[in-house]
TrEMBL record:
UniProt keywords, alphabetically: 4Fe-4S, Electron transport, Iron, Iron-sulfur, Metal-binding, Transport
Protein name: 4Fe-4S binding protein
Origin species: Jezberella montanilacus
Cofactor(s) this protein requires: [4Fe-4S] cluster
Domain of life: Bacteria
Length: 83
């Protein structure tokens, strides 16, 4: 599953730097997560780093991107070039 940032985002800038896939960027009014780059940190960390650092807990599972660990690992391998 990919993650998304809700409207509760306060634009504190702490979620973008720890994202190993550069999936987080500034949107029109709040930060956004590119679901094609988000692996929920699978392959990098044991838990999504954006959720770890978010002070307002505004990052949730994206309801339109329900994917299993196998899909997330495949995306990790594609994004990193690892096999």
């Amino acid at each position: 599953m990919a993650l998304r940032i809700t409207d509760e985002c306060i634009n504190c800038d702490v979620c973008e730097p720890p994202c190993p896939n550069q999936a987080i960027s500034m949107g029109e009014s709040i930060y956004v997560i590119d679901p094609l780059k988000c692996t929920e940190c699978v392959g990098h960390f044991d838990e999504p780093q954006c959720k770890v650092v978010c002070p307002v807990d505004c990052i949730e599972i994206h309801p339109d991107w329900k994917e299993g660990q196998d899909v997330l690992m495949a995306r990790y391998k594609q994004l990193t070039g690892k096999t």
